Amino acid sequence: MDELPLGKLRNEDLVDLIFPHLGAEDRQVVYGPKEGFDAAVMEYDAERYAVIATDPTLGVPRETFGFFSYHFAASDVAVFGATPKWLVLDVLLPPKTTRVYLRTVMRAIDVECRRYGSSIIGGHTGLYPWIKEPISTTTVMGLVRKSNLKLPLAKPGDRIVVTGKVGLEFAVSAAYFRRYELSKVLSFREIERLQKLYRFETALPDALLARSFVRGMHDATEGGLTALHEIADNSGVGFRVYSERLNLDPLVRKVLEFYGLEPWNVSSTGTLIAITPPENVDSLIAELHKNGIVAFEIGEFTEERERILITGKNEEKFPEFEMDPYNELFHPKPQEGR
Fold first, then answer.
1. If 0-12 CB within 10 Å is exposed, 13-18 middle and 19+ buried, where does residue 182 land?
2. Rounded to a whole number, what is the distance in angstroms from the first to the last CA of the chain?
3. What mean pLDDT comes out for the span 98-119?
4. Closest CA to 76 of 199, 168, 265, 202
5. pLDDT, position 8
6. Is the dihedral of CA 137, 139, 276, 288 positive or negative?
7. What is the spatial distance between Cα 197 and Cα 337, in angstroms, rounded to a whole number?
8. Which residues contact residue 81 at a Cβ distance below 8 angstroms, ignoring those fewer than 6 apart?
9. Which of 2, 155, 216, 268 suits 180 as a labelling partner, its CA being 20 to 30 A distant?
10. Cα–Cα dist 114/117, whole Å
11. Residues contacting 105, CB < 8 A, separation 6+
12. Number of H helices and number of E strands within the chain?
């Protein structure tokens, strides 16, 4: 079959279907579309680069729609070391959307813009019969001094520091979309608490605090920590991850265990992967902890090309990104004949 799999395009499909068709070359483009790069980098002036990212927001709980319409793309700008500055926002809505709902969405986006000093400078909004649920596409641009640009690239010996949100996106989505099912293992208050944790599904504050200490950063979105493979591929290195160092939120652990999932390849939007020189690890973690963000070192990048997961005395190949359990559980494919 020639059907593409659900979720973001796999790297091999990007290389085959997208990258050969990128239009005219432009010398101002410093870094264009590339596997593992979630933003573009362009010349802005003699001292600064412009970092530009775009992301859709769809399939999220309606009350979180405004928050994610800002943070998905803004996080991609921040992990390149830039501060999100300007937004172009398209909001497409289904028929019978109320003024109250649209006002609520825009107020939520406005709150996040003011929190981080961002401005909406254009976009498009409309209701269309083909739209079944709210969808937005947000393009965010920020500026960074050329010497402060951060790329998702590692050197042998760099440490892997992550913030404590691994698996959170999956768990929060389960609390919204499968709450009755989850009531078998979680109390009503635990499910309610998980729902409120959606506000931590952003790498933006983490990246703004971490950028002075790191070599590069990545947001572990779809596929979770398997993003380490993209970093290793682009850097010509391997890595070793120690499973006992992973600090999971107890509620997240309960949810993953309930569905029989490991934490390595589940959607983890907001989890910052910080590629950190060894001499900066303690300072980075201390800075994040001081600002209420849990962070810990889980491994290191190596000169050897192997990608290893170490559990106790056992070593195995680190999991690859195949199908994110998020898509299978919350957006299953329709059965044939229906």
1. buried
2. 19
3. 98
4. 202
5. 83
6. negative
7. 38
8. 51, 144, 148, 149, 150, 207, 211, 217
9. 268
10. 5
11. 65, 66, 69, 91, 134
12. 11, 13
Report d(CA 297, CA 314) in Å as an integer. Answer: 19
Complete domains list, the chain, with CATH: 11-148 (3.30.1330.10), 159-330 (3.90.650.10)
Place of tokens 């504050």: 205
User: What is the tens place of the pLDDT at every residue in 10-46?
Assistant: 889 999 999 999 999 999 999 999 988 999 999 999 9
DSSP 8-state secondary structure symbol assigned to residue 15: I
Q: What is the four-CA torsion angle of 61, 196, 168, 185, rounded to 10 degrees?
A: -100
Beta carbons of 40 and 29 less than 8 angstroms apart: yes
Q: How far apart are CA 309 and CA 325, in angstroms?
A: 20
Residues 6+ apart with CB under 8 A from 237: 154, 155, 156, 301, 302, 303, 305
Q: How far is CA 252 from CA 45, 199, 218, 262, in A?
A: 44, 15, 21, 11
For 251-283, how does the pLDDT look when each residue is reduced to its tens digit (9 = 90+)? Answer: 999 999 999 999 999 999 999 999 999 999 999
Kindly report the average pLDDT of the chain as a whole number. 94
